Amino acid sequence: MTLQDKRVLVIGGGSGIGFGVARSAAEEDAKVVIASRDAKKIAEAAQTIGASSAFIDVRDENTVARFFQDNGAFDHIAFTAGDWDGFAPGALANLDLVKAAARMTTRFWGAVAVAKHGAAKLPPDGSYTITNGMLAHDR
């Protein structure tokens, strides 16, 4: 499979695994869009690999729906968005369930919103890849 001229969306591609996915797709001559709610970070990341950047806040379904209305369909979507503010994994007995549930807004429900509004429009040979290392995250 080649990614040449395919539209590839990487949500959360400003750094880490997401940026690696975006860079690899760009090296294969894909038309890459890096999207996140951190406009400055993704603009800088996109510029370094010749991609474009776009705002999306996966915590808000209306924003996700508007993003796909404005940007159309993609051939491949990689969801690597994460939100670790204030959450530090540790012993299950010490888990703050309120903080843990807040992380699910991005990591789980955000991925569901992208599936509903974006992945549902993928072509038959398209893909939607979700990464989630919520409990494996090590600070």
For the structure shown, list the relevant keywords.
139 residues; alpha/beta; Rossmann fold; five-stranded parallel beta sheet; 4 helices; 40% helix; globular
State the helical fraction: 25-40%
Q: Beta-strand percentage?
A: 15-25%
Uncertain regions: pLDDT < 50 for 5+ in a row? none
Number of strands: 5
How many separate helices?
Answer: 4
Taking all Cα atoms into account, the compactness measure Rg is: 15 Å
Query: Taking all residues together, what is the mean pLDDT?
Result: 88
Spatial order of the strands in the main sheet? 3-2-1-4-5
CATH superfamily: NAD(P)-binding Rossmann-like Domain
Q: Strand-and-helix sequence, N→C?
A: EHEHEHEHE
Structural class: alpha/beta
Query: What's the CATH class label?
Result: Alpha Beta
Count of discrete domains: 1
Report how far apart the termini are. Answer: 36 Å
The biggest sheet, with number of strands, parallel, antiparallel or mixed sense and barrel status, is:
5 strands, parallel
The CATH topology is Rossmann fold
What coarse outline follows from CA principal-axis ratios?
A: globular
Query: Which second-level CATH architecture applies?
Result: 3-Layer(aba) Sandwich
